[in-house]
Structures are given as structure tokens and as C-alpha cells.
Design goal:
By secondary structure, the protein is α+β, with helices and mostly antiparallel strands. The protein is built from ten helices and ten strands.
């Protein structure tokens, strides 16, 4: 049974070690410092207890076996002494026992071959001779080496009827009933087996206790990792101990954070509305001022009887209509801001969408638009908003080229042939598409590059300054990007729109 239990425990410990190694490899990112330290401390204390218990047990087993062995040898030497005493009772000297020599040297033996083969010397043990001859002990037991093995030698004096020492006999103790090594081994093995069983049970109990103790801390960690503005959860912990104070502090922090977040959200919302109101007021006020001035001028001319007011009427009407169009564009721009968070994301074929948008603008004789596409380029996003991004970028390129052509005509030079290159390709960033818009217009000056995507910034006389800012917001909502650089191919502006590819789901039967 002991052998079977030891084998089973060894197999269990090996499997446990392999399981721990695989668990550590799977959880390289998970840290359990304190739990590991507590479990290690408990296991170390139990192992030290096991070692101490085994050492004490071996010591007591050794002392007990030695006492039993000494008792058995004492009985044996007494029996031999009684048996041999009868032959020496009437002897007056060792010479009558066929003596050859004396003085502690062997002169008679029942097994003389051990002396002939030099397994043992012909002199008796010096200490034993001293104990009996000088100290007059009744018997003595000494550990001696015979050949390659050690054994106990029993020595005792033989007396005659006058109570004089006639001789000293010596006999090895050859009783194998006391196998100290095997007994000690099985004794220790039994202790270790029982203790290992208790150790495993204690490990399971302490593991559950430690896990239960650290469960609130782990729950706090998980909820803090998952926490967001809209997902703040309390922890329910009903026990009153050291962990409860930590749980109460966490719940109080969640409560305060929820209130602070609510107030901050409201403040940000109010600030956003105030900023939006200022922008709307600013954009509306800009066109209203020239409208008012032109109409007031026309009224004064009519009141003064100036006949030129009728001729001036058409000019004022055109200016008013132009400013009204600007107001309409401003309203559309802010309407786009309101729609950024409401439209659902759908699957979009970028190649098809770009071809459709290019077809709408490809009606300028002095501007050539070329396109290099990519089949099956699919993304997810709000289609109307992405359409607005592409429309805005193409419109900006056309307006930049037309501005240069008008400027050349005014200077009396030959206008250039406008070129716009639009390409759809795989991005250098893994998992993305790049849509590149290049033109041979003037581009953006170095001083204006940092302000290019800032709201209310524009280089056009009739622009709102919101187009590129809205484009960037739309792309950020789609997890995309927009960048500006100089076109190396045709020398003008180069806008790169980067959108994440739609992930394909493989269905394996």
C-alpha cells in the first residue's frame, strides 16, 4: 500500500508540475504576485514541517531500534556466557583450555577460517579487552569491521568456581531480525506518504481560501479594466474584514467618479453647444454684413433721386444672391456635424463609389481626372458621409486648379492644363486602404499646413473653413485617417485618406 501511494503521489506531483508550467505559459500577461507568494509561503512552511517531522521520526526510530538491538544483544551475551561458563567452571587457568597464547590474543575459535583468510585480526578489540580486564565490566558490545561489512561483537569474561577470569569470549551478533535500514525507510516513507496526502489537501484548501480572499481584488481589477464613462459598476462584498475597506473605497470612488463624469459630460456638452452657437453666429454674420451694406447703399441712392440706382440694382442683387448661397452652404456644413453620430455603418465598395463621384465631376474640358482603382476594396462606414469626404476633396482640387487658371488668364498667360490623379491601393499600414487625391494646383503653403484641418480656417474667399475639419471627423468615426503632403508626381496638393479594410470571415465546414 505504501509503495502504491508513493507511486501515485509521484505521478500526481509530476502532472501538477506540468499543469503549472502550461498555466504559466498561457498566462504570461497575468500577474498573481501576492497569491503566488502566499501559496509559496504556505507550501514552504508545510515542507519544512515535513522535513522536521521526518528527521525527528528517524532519530526516534534509530534510538528505539538501537535500544531493542542492545537488549537483544545483552540477552544473547548472557546466554553465551552461561553456556560457556559450564566448561570453564573447574579450570584454574586458560592453559587448561588448550591455550597457545594469552594476553588478549585469540587462541581458540569455532570458525578459524576467518583468521586464516585475514578477515579479522588475531587480537581482540583493545577497547573491549580494557573494559573487561581493567574496568571489570560484566560484558561489552563493540561495532567492528569483518571483511567489507560491519557488525556488533559481544564480549564477556568466563569465570571458574573461584570466581577468577579464565578467558574472554567474543561472538559476532548475526541476528537479521533487526533490519534498521528497511524499517527506517518504510517508516519515513509512511510518514512522507501521509504528509503528502495532507499536503495536497492543505494545498487545495489554501488555494480556495486564497482565491476567495483575493476574489474582491480581482473583481476590482476586472471592473477597473472594463470601466468606461457609461460602464461603472459597484462591487458587492458582504464580509467585514481587511478587504471590505478596500471594496468600500472602490465603491466610493465609483460613486464620485460617476457624479464627476456626469457633471463633466454636461459641462462639455454645454461648452460644445456654446462653441457651436458662436460658430453659427459668426458664419451667419459674415454674409449678412455685406448684404445689409449693399441694400443700405441702394436705398440711399434711390432716396437721393440718383438715377443710377436702377443700374446698381442688378449688381446688388447678384451680391445678395451670392451671400445667400454662402448662408445655405454654412447651414449644410453645420447640418453635416449633426449627422455625424446618427448614420449607421454599412458595407461600401470603395472602387464603385469613387467611380461614381469622379463621373459627376468629369465635365471640365481644361481639367483631366484620371483614376487607378482596386477591385473588391470593401470598407464599413456611413456612405453619405464618406461620399461627402470624397466630394469635398475632389471639389477642393478642382477649385485650386481653376483658381490658378483664372489667375493665369488675368495675367495674360496661357492657362495650364489641370490634372487630378485619384488612386485606390493597399496601404503600407496593414489592414488599411489608401485613397490618394493629387492635383497640379498650387498646393498648401508651409505656414498653413498646421492649420489645414482646423475649423474656420480657409484660404478661399467664399469658404466656411469647415470642409476639411468635417472630413477628418467623419474619417475618425470610421477609425480612418487623413494626411496632407506635397505631390511628388505632379507637384500640387496630395491628400491621403486611409480607411480600415472590412475583415473577411472564413466559414469552414
Amino acid at each position: 500500500m505504501v509503495d502504491f501511494l508513493i507511486l501515485a503521489l509521484a505521478l500526481f506531483l509530476c502532472c501538477s508540475a506540468l499543469s503549472i508550467i502550461s498555466t504559466v505559459q498561457r498566462r504570461e500577461k497575468t500577474s498573481s504576485y501576492f497569491k503566488s507568494r502566499i501559496n509559496a509561503a504556505i507550501m514552504l512552511a508545510l515542507l519544512m514541517t515535513l522535513i522536521a517531522l521526518a528527521c525527528v521520526s528517524i532519530f526516534f526510530v534509530y534510538k528505539r531500534n538501537l535500544a531493542n538491538l542492545r537488549s537483544s544483544m545483552t540477552e544473547r551475551v548472557s546466554s553465551l556466557q552461561t553456556l560457556l561458563q559450564a566448561r570453564c567452571r573447574y579450570s584454574q587457568s586458560y592453559r587448561e583450555l588448550e591455550s597457545q597464547e594469552a594476553g588478549g590474543k585469540i587462541f581458540r575459535s569455532t570458525t578459524p577460517e576467518i583468521f586464516d583468510r585475514l578477515l579479522i585480526g588475531s587480537r581482540m578489540n583493545q577497547k573491549a579487552y580494557e573494559d573487561i580486564a581493567a574496568r571489570h565490566l560484566r560484558f561489552c558490545i563493540h561495532s567492528e569491521k569483518i571483511g567489507n561489512s560491519r557488525t556488533y561483537m559481544l564480549y564477556a569474561p568466563l569465570f571458574n568456581v573461584q570466581n577468577s577470569v579464565v578467558a574472554i569470549f567474543g561472538s559476532p551478533y548475526t541476528d537479521d531480525s533487526f533490519d534498521f535500514r528497511n524499517e527506517a525507510f518504510y517508516h519515513v516513507a509512511s510518514i512522507i506518504t501521509v504528509f503528502l496526502i495532507l499536503l495536497i489537501l492543505a494545498r487545495m484548501i489554501t488555494a480556495r481560501a486564497v482565491d476567495k480572499m483575493f476574489r474582491p481584488v480581482s473583481e476590482i481589477s476586472d471592473k477597473m479594466n472594463k470601466a468606461s464613462i457609461d460602464n461603472l459598476e459597484y462591487i458587492v462584498y458582504e464580509q467585514d474584514d481587511e478587504i471590505s475597506s478596500l471594496v468600500r473605497a472602490y465603491n466610493l470612488m465609483v460613486h464620485d467618479l460617476y457624479n464627476s463624469t456626469k457633471q463633466l459630460t454636461q459641462a462639455e456638452r454645454d461648452k460644445a453647444w456654446a462653441t457651436m452657437a458662436r460658430q453659427v453666429a459668426h458664419e451667419i454674420k459674415n454674409p449678412l454684413t455685406p448684404i445689409k451694406l449693399q441694400i443700405q447703399r441702394l436705398i440711399r441712392m434711390k432716396s437721393n433721386g440718383n438715377p443710377a440706382w436702377a443700374d446698381r440694382f442688378d449688381e446688388v442683387s447678384d451680391e445678395v444672391l451670392k451671400q445667400i448661397d454662402l448662408l445655405a452652404d454654412t447651414a449644410n456644413e453645420f447640418s453635416t456635424f449633426a449627422k455625424l453620430y446618427t448614420e449607421d455603418h454599412v458595407e461600401i465598395d470603395l472602387d464603385k463609389l469613387l467611380k461614381e463621384e469622379i463621373g459627376l465631376f468629369d465635365n471640365h474640358e481644361d481639367i483631366e481626372i484620371s483614376y487607378m482603382g482596386l477591385d473588391k476594396a470593401t470598407v464599413l462606414g456611413p456612405k453619405p458621409q464618406l461620399t461627402r469626404v470624397f466630394t469635398n476633396l475632389i471639389s477642393n482640387a478642382i477649385q485650386a486648379i481653376e483658381g490658378e487658371q483664372i489667375k493665369a488668364k488675368e495675367e495674360g498667360t496661357e492657362p495650364m492644363q489641370g490634372r487630378i490623379i485619384i488612386s485606390l491601393r493597399l496601404s503600407q499600414k496593414d489592414g488599411f486602404y489608401d485613397v490618394v487625391f493629387e492635383d497640379n494646383g498650387p498646393g498648401v503653403s508651409e505656414s498653413n499646413r498646421d492649420k489645414l484641418f482646423t475649423p474656420n480656417f480657409t484660404t478661399k474667399s467664399n469658404g466656411t473653413g469647415l470642409g476639411l475639419s468635417i472630413c477628418r471627423n467623419i474619417l475618425e468615426k470610421c477609425n480612418g485617417e487623413i494626411h496632407y503632403s506635397r505631390s511628388f508626381a505632379i507637384g500640387g496638393a496630395c491628400f491621403t485618406v486611409r480607411l480600415p479594410r472590412k475583415k473577411k470571415i472564413n466559414n469552414h465546414k
